[in-house]
Amino acid sequence: MLLKGEIALVTGGSRGIGRACSLALAKEGAEVIVNYVSNESAAQNVCNEIKSFGGTASAIKFDIGNPTETQEALQALLKEKKTISILVNNAGITCDGLMMRFPVSDWDSVINTNLRGAFITSQAVIRSMMKERKGSIIHMSSIVGIMGNAGQAAYCAAKAGLIGLTKSMAKELATRNIRVNAVAPGYIETDMTGILTPEQKEGILKSIPLGRVGKPEEIADAVVFLASERASYITGQVLAVDGGMGM
């Protein structure tokens, strides 16, 4: 087991890519803390699935878009666990629309959740990692954070911001043996992409050299690798898992 003895927190860990990451980390021996905002049932289902194969998991409720709530929840969690050795900043939302008609309130919601939320969560846990002189933080960016995408100005800006945050944190924390990397998924079959029309999906498929959509488990495999000692000399990097879409 690559992650035996580690404690991992996965934000937005109850569904989609987050769920796949929670399960994959647990299968490699990590104790997993599954964050959720409103769907307690989904989070408990993930925990129960982890326990069914002998893993250890618990659920924690906080909204990463709410700094006070996040800080209070993580302060209580760290008082119990002492340290979090793996942090996967996965939680995110999207509000799409052409920029000229895009509400500023929607812009703020996307930036606050997808970018500021990752910053707040990271800030809350890195002190414990620094004390242990050990840790791995993985931000869930997106290939559109590199490429851009019409109609997704806020989402792309937030995901691009995560790349800058990744590189800055990696430089700040390297001396304490804390590695910080990002994963940039391409088109992955999740609830978030399930709302696309058939015409939109067909257009996206044409842009993917491998000719298919990705699976959440394929993103989770990349997260497990970056979290493990097999990636011990990797920090400040962005790993695109996109079927070649960003080439």
How would you describe this protein?
Strands 3-2-1-4-5-6-7 form a 7-stranded parallel β-sheet, sandwiched between helices. It is built from 8 helices and 7 strands; from the N terminus they run E-H-E-H-E-H-E-H-E-H-H-E-H-H-E. Helix 2 (40-52) links the parallel strand 2 (31-36) and strand 3. The chain is an alpha/beta fold and 247 residues long. The model has no long low-confidence stretch (mean pLDDT 95). It has helices spanning 16-27, 40-52, 67-81, 104-132, 144-147, 153-173, 198-206, 216-227; strands at residues 7-10, 31-36, 57-61, 86-89, 135-140, 178-185, 238-241. Helix 3 packs parallel to helix 4 (104-132) and helix 4 (104-132) runs parallel beside helix 6 (153-173). The protein has one domain: NAD(P)-binding Rossmann-like Domain (Rossmann fold, 3-Layer(aba) Sandwich), CATH 3.40.50. It is globular, with a radius of gyration of 17 Å.
Number of strands: 7
- The CATH architecture is 3-Layer(aba) Sandwich
Provide the number of structural domains: 1
- Following the backbone from N to C, one meets helices and strands in this order, namely EHEHEHEHEHHEHHE
Radius of gyration from the alpha-carbon trace, in angstroms: 17 Å
The CATH class, by name, is Alpha Beta
Number of helices: 8
CATH topology: Rossmann fold
Question: What is the fold's blueprint, element by element?
Answer:
Layout: E1 7-10, H1 16-27, E2 31-36, H2 40-52, E3 57-61, H3 67-81, E4 86-89, H4 104-132, E5 135-140, H5 144-147, H6 153-173, E6 178-185, H7 198-206, H8 216-227, E7 238-241
Parallel strand pairs: 1-2, 1-4, 2-3, 4-5, 5-6, 6-7
Helix pairs in contact: 1-2, 1-8, 3-4, 4-6
